Amino acid sequence: MHLRSIYYKFVLGYFIFGLLGFISISTIGSRMILNHLLESQVDALYNEATVIAEQCSSPYQGSKVAELSSVFPQLQAVSVYLKADIWVVNRKGTIILDSDNSARSGITLENFEPPLTDNKPFSVGSFYNQFDHDVISVSAPITGNYNTYGYILIHMPLNELMIFRSKTLDILYISGAILFGLSLIIMIVFTRYVYGPLNKITAGANEYAAGNLGYTIQVNTQDEIGYLAATLNYMSGELNQMEEYQRNFIANVSHDFRSPLTSIKGYLEAIIDGTIPVEMQEKYLKRVISETDRLNKLTEGMLTLNSLDSKGYLSRTNFDINRVIKDTAASFEGICNTKGITFELTFSDNIQMVYADLGKIQQVLYNLIDNAIKFSHHDSTIYIQASVRHEKVFVSVKDTGIGIPKDSIKKIWERFYKSDISRGKDKRGTGLGLAIVKEIIQSHGENIDVVSTEKVGTEFIFSLPRSTNL
């Protein structure tokens, strides 16, 4: 798994980081500590050697060497304090005094070379094979009357620095181990709040890829990962609804196309095989034409909805909504006369200008009035009203027909939906009229509402923006 490999890489990198940190401390850090201790110790020893050399220079008068035994107690005291051996050596390399009071006094160092007097001269080693272990040797010249008479040599065992370095490294190792242990908290936090949620998101993505769009990712953190999980849950819900809508869409389209096609096929076959006599053929051909009109309306409705789903289709202008209502109502004069239906139009002003798409609003009014006529009783009245409230114009289309059942009111806006009552009264409807109405009104950024009571009537109310260029 990709995420798992990332997690293991993170863990591996964590332990490699710890290992490299340990190696760095034990090598580079150890060398740096030793160099720093060596520089500090050389400075301290050189300062002591210089002080002793100044005190030893006073016994010298001219070219004669005076008695140096007076400085011996000081050499011993400093030697004990520094845990080092201190020698007084003449220019030939003969050891005149030894703080250890050992047999080295009187020994002449072979091939002795006077050390340089600058840069705090020191050496590390056995110092002319006088020690069986490595020592740090620092020298300072004994001068008097502008002459050099000898040297103060201080020898400190290198092991003293090694012990101090080991103790310092132990502190660093312990501190590093504590920090490494504390940094495990980062690993735990990463595992719980990053890797765990990402693992759940990956599992959810796999479920979605397998077609299980009802799966819910259980991540509720208030961070970017939680937001990602919530977004994926929302997306899966929308896709699930879309899939359900597509299934219903195909089922509804198949049903609404199959019925008229079956009728057309049956009538035409009956005409061809002579089942329908010649004198009756005109009647059934008119029915075929009626069914083809129904198919045409269904196709046009689907094309309209498809165009409404795309952006930028509105062509807004300023127009008088009163005039549009009058013209649309007049187009139903024929069917209204047949059913004895009359219109009662009420306008708050003579002229009420709105800013909208004229053609689309005509379609809205046509669909609403057509619905009102279909579900109105004979010899009834349809009330159409337009009134201004603030910056809106509200249009109402009200009938006194059969009404809409309570359980169907929320569903009437769905595409292809028809209630059982509707199917009885509206045998030629497509179930797309109200869906088109709602899409058009919402595309204008406005709302449409419905108030209905069974066996009393239905009222649709929608709003439009008033024209600002009057």
SSE layout and pairings?
Layout lengths: L1 H56 L14 H11 L2 E6 L4 E4 L23 E4 L9 E10 L2 E11 H25 L1 H26 L14 H49 L5 H32 L6 E5 H10 L2 H7 L2 E6 L5 E5 H17 L6 E9 L2 E8 L20 H6 L7 H11 L4 E6 L3 E9 L5
Parallel strand pairs: 7-9
Antiparallel strand pairs: 1-2, 1-5, 3-4, 4-5, 6-8, 9-10, 10-12, 11-12
The CA-CA distance between the termini, in Å, is 66 Å
Main β-sheet: number of strands, strand sense, barrel status?
5 strands, antiparallel
Number of domains: 3
CATH topology term of the largest domain: Beta-Lactamase
CATH class label of the largest domain: Alpha Beta
Radius of gyration: 53 Å
What this model shows, in words?
The chain is an alpha+beta fold. It folds into 3 domains: 2-180, 2-Layer Sandwich (Beta-Lactamase), CATH 3.30.450; 209-310, Helix Hairpins (Orthogonal Bundle); 314-465, Heat Shock Protein 90 (2-Layer Sandwich), CATH 3.30.565.10. The chain has 11 helices and 12 strands. It has helices at 2-57, 72-82, 158-182, 184-209, 224-272, 278-309, 321-330, 333-339, 358-374, 420-425, 433-443; strands at 85-90, 95-98, 122-125, 135-144, 147-157, 316-320, 342-347, 353-357, 381-389, 392-399, 448-453, 457-465. The protein has a 5-stranded antiparallel β-sheet with strand order 2-1-5-4-3. The radius of gyration is 53 Å and the shape is rod-shaped. The two termini are 66 Å apart. The model is unreliable at 61-66 and 420-427 (pLDDT under 50).
